[in-house]
Specification:
- The complex is a heterodimer of chains A (about 230) and B (about 525).
- Chain A is built from 4 helices and 11 strands.
- Chain A has helices spanning about 1-20, 35-40, 85-90, 195-200, and strands spanning about 45-55, 65-70, 75-80, 95-105, 110-120, 130, 145-160, 170-175, 180-185, 205-215, 225-230.
- In chain A, a hairpin with an 8-residue loop joins strand 7 and strand 8.
- Chain A is globular, with a radius of gyration of 21 Å.
- Chain B is an alpha/beta fold and about 525 residues long.
- Chain B contains 19 helices and 16 strands.
- Chain B has helices spanning about 1-20, 55-70, 85-95, 110-115, 125-130, 150-155, 180-185, 195-205, 230-240, 260-270, 285-290, 355-370, 370-380, 390, 395-400, 415-425, 440-455, 465-475, 500-530, and strands at about 40-50, 75-80, 105, 160, 165, 165-170, 170, 175-180, 225-230, 275-280, 295-300, 325-330, 340, 345-350, 385, 430.
- Chain B has a 5-stranded mixed beta sheet with strand order 2-1-3-14-6.
- Chain B is globular, with a radius of gyration of 29 Å.
- The chains are: A alpha+beta (about 230), B alpha/beta (about 525).
- At the A-B interface, strand 4 of A face helix 2 of B.
Amino acid sequence: MKKIIAVLMLLCMVVSLVACNKFDPAAKSEGVMTYAEYDAAAMDAEVVIEAYVQATQSWWDNKITAYLQDPDGAYFCYEMACSEADAAKLTAGTKIKVKGYKGEWAGEVEIMNATFEFVESEKWVAEATDVTAFLGKDELIKHQNKFVTFKGLTVVSVEYKNGEPGDDIYVTVSKDGAEYSFCVERYLTDPDTAVYKAVGELKAGDTVDIDGFLYWYEGVNTHITNVVKK
Amino acid sequence: MKRLICAFIALVLCLACLSGCHGSKRQELFEIPEEFDTSKQYEITFWAKNDTNLTQVAIYKKAVADFEALYPNVKVTLRLYTDYGRIYSDVITNIATGTTPNVCITYPDHIATYLTGDNTVVPLDELMDDERFGLGGSEVRFESPKQDEIIEKYLDEGMIGDEHYALPFLRSTEACYVNKTFVEKLGFTLPEVLTWDFIWEVCEKAVEKDADGNFIVNGQPTLLPCIYKSTDNMMIQILRQQGADYSTAEGEIGLFNDTARGFLLDLADHTANGEFSTFKISSYPANFLNAGQCIFAIDSTAGATWMGSDAPLIDIAEDRLVEFETAVMTVPQFDTENPTMISQGPSVCIFNKPDHGEVLASWLFAQFLLTNDVQISYAQTEGYVPVTSKAQSSPEYLDYLSREGEDGDMYYDIKLKATKLTLDYTEKTFVTPVFNGSASLRNAAGQLIEEVTKATRRGKTVDDEYIDSLYDEMISLYRLDGIGAGSGERAELGELPPTSVMLLSLIAAAWVFIGIYVLVQTLKKRKNQGNT
């Protein structure tokens, strides 16, 4: 009996230890803002956040633009100071601490003039949030910068920025009679990527599901990362 | 002994040859070929910049097709950019790998950096003067402008030192696009020449709010009365208009002076009052202007098609557009009797290649960009002006200018007004000196304004101490202490690397051995002669 009790106690301890070490992706270091605090911060205020890299645009001139998210919200870090070596380490799921200034450019709320440091952590990658129902509604902007998905959109037009493949692709889609401008951002998904090619082959009238980052440029302007033609 | 000395000399010579091979191969100076070999196929690349304007892309494509029809042995591959900075960066990368384009749209400031390579960019003087293939040359297969048909002021902008390294492609200047309706609603009348004093006076009045926190003038919660697109131009023009230093032709830096300081401190006050912002901080001036959220939008005349309630190119939702009257004015001045403004716009340079025939093909294509058809059609896409008097005085172009406001597209009144402003003030425009480092200096000039604006918005104290620190930071960031007065002098290169010291020592030792050998042989010979 004693042996059984001892084994049970040991089992309980193991379970407790595992529970104690459970990874909490929303955890923040001391002095770091929660998403709610960041959201409430005034424009031009200094901000310090921790979040997980979801994707980056191509590194250039010792700078990198990153799409970050934590379980509570998302952040767009525009042209963070970054060495080429560190840029290679900014893979999806990597946790970083970012210090910069909150700003707004053409409606896109972003962190400007930022620096960052790596935070030791397990990786965390966001599931796409379905925001189809929020299209055309004020609620959509609350999900700004998140990795999102839209279901059942109709392609209105697909235009290459320069009239031919190589640069951004402007995609106009419609839902319930309203049109929206989305974009394949070539520094996020370059012309060699599957999504760039897939979007280039879309035709007006196609029905599609689209995944991407909920970027803003004078209105919603999702940076497309995946498209599925129905 | 003889064998030993020979072996030693051979070793030294081999080492010398090998070390010579290790360095980068020198690019030969370009010489104009006797003939243009039409039996040979040439493939040239043209890196071109457009203003995110598909009509401009179509014009480039037509120019390529028309040129290829005239020269069937030349294939031109077009690579399109919408950003001069990216072209600059890509060219620098490709200089290192020897894969530069053949023809490239660029700024003279950038060419000055390209020239630090080894015969990288082709000087154009001999090509322009060549009787057969030069401007208006006898063997050119199209109606090319003669040198005196290119506006001299624009042609001279492509000079670096005593030589031309760029042909002007098109020219523009900056303009202030004013919401005249709001200015008058605020109780002001636009002067003939806009001044900074007038702008700040209007801005100060414009930022008054009602009890709900909306701006009285537009009834909206957002208003940035004055937005400047290119803050480098802003600083450069402010200094020039006040007769202050920027840089000398020799590359001495004068930017960090008290005139700049005074303007920056003044700008901080207006920024703190919510009167001023920049493109980099807030977004395109046109978007704010068209939404009734900006009164003075200062941007290139080549951005005119985006300006105004009825602009043919619009980036904001239709329901955000506000109806107002747009005035197109010169950039704000300090001396209204003597207005001055920047001359800007794309230029074309040619990169050197081992095959001189390929370079000649590049030159012919660059020259083709100055033909009336290309010049006029491209100029009509925006508030650009052709760079040749031949195009400017052509009936087709004069007809275009006479039709201001006939429609909202080709003859869009704001675009035509911006074009006429550029033409009317050609002689009042200026460019800054070009030298290796002038591109960095230009960036620093703009960054001073960006940093002061950001710091003010972020609640930092902008005073003399801040400006002192900012000057130091910019000098360091853009490495401006490494250029300037020293640019015309020989740089101190430091001690020779150990391998070079060893090689030179070996060569010296070889000569010593050769000398000893010759001396020994001579003495032996004399001795033998003496014995006989």
